């Protein structure tokens, strides 16, 4: 299985950070390619993207000011297959990317991703009071995996906060 390429550049509005690529993403070379993953539907329903993109169009999000990366590069069937060592390697690499590319918001697609990255255990959905990298906003959103038990409309409601934060940052 091959890792997939980040879609990232300097000064993006949002960089979405997942756990790691799925097997399907590794096979296709595109982020959130598993048909059971609701990432693309969530972004559209939350008003983040103007259309529902297909995973094969993941690179087009850069044009909208959005990027994508993962805390761990190795593809797995499920996030629970990621080892502690992989998280320990991924954490400083992710921090370095955030420091280098300076997105306005880092959206962690899954509470567990942020817990591994920040070392914090008890945290709310949405904007965090304190960011790991100064000058960025850490935003925690539910995983888009089909395995997540939250109702889709509850997940979308959390993601809907992101366009408001982008607007607020542009007016500040």
Q: Which structural category do the helix and sheet elements fall into?
A: alpha/beta
Please name the CATH architecture: 3-Layer(aba) Sandwich
Major β-sheet, in short? 5 strands, mixed
**Average pLDDT score:** 95
Order of helices and strands: EHHHEHEHEEHH
Gross morphology? globular
Which regions are unreliable across 5 or more consecutive residues at pLDDT < 50?
Answer: none
Total number of β-strand segments?
5
Number of domains: 1
CATH structural fold name: Uracil-DNA Glycosylase, subunit E
How many individual helices? Answer: 7
CATH superfamily: Uracil-DNA glycosylase-like domain
Helix content: 25-40%
Please compute the radius of gyration using only Cα atoms.
15 Å
Spatial sequence of strands, sheet with the most strands: 2-1-3-5-4
Write up what this structure looks like.
The structure is a single chain. The chain has 172 residues and is α/β, with parallel strands linked by helices. The protein has one domain: Uracil-DNA Glycosylase, subunit E (3-Layer(aba) Sandwich). Helices cover 36% and strands 13% of the residues. The chain has seven helices and five strands, in the order βαααβαβαββαα. It has helices at residues 23-28, 39-45, 61-64, 84-101, 111-118, 152-159, 161-171, and strands at residues 14-18, 66-70, 105-109, 126-127, 137-141. A five-stranded mixed beta sheet has the order 2-1-3-5-4, with helices on both faces. The longest helix is centred in the middle third of the chain and has 18 residues, at 84-101. It is globular, with a radius of gyration of 15 Å. The model has no long low-confidence stretch (mean pLDDT 95). It comes from Mesobacillus stamsii. Residues 7-152 form the Uracil-DNA glycosylase-like domain. Pfam families: UDG (PF03167). This is TDG/mug DNA glycosylase family protein. Keywords: DNA damage, DNA repair, Glycosidase, Hydrolase.
């Amino acid at each position: 299985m091959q890792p997939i390429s980040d879609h990232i550049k300097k000064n993006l509005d949002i960089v979405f950070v997942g756990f790691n690529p799925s097997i399907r993403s590794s096979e296709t070379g595109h982020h959130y390619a598993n048909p059971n993953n609701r990432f693309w539907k969530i972004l559209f329903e939350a008003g983040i993207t103007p259309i529902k993109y297909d995973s094969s169009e993941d690179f087009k999000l850069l044009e909208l000011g959005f990027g994508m990366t993962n805390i761990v590069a190795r593809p797995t069937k499920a996030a629970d297959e990621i080892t502690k060592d992989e998280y320990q390697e991924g954490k400083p690499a992710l921090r370095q990317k955030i420091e280098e590319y300076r997105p306005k918001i880092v959206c962690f697609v899954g509470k567990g991703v942020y817990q591994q990255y920040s070392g914090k255990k008890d945290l709310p959905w949405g904007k965090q009071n304190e960011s790991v990298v100064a000058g960025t906003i850490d935003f925690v959103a539910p995983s888009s995996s089909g395995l997540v038990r939250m109702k889709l409309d509850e997940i979308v409601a959390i993601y809907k906060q992101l366009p408001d934060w982008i607007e607020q940052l542009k007016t500040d």
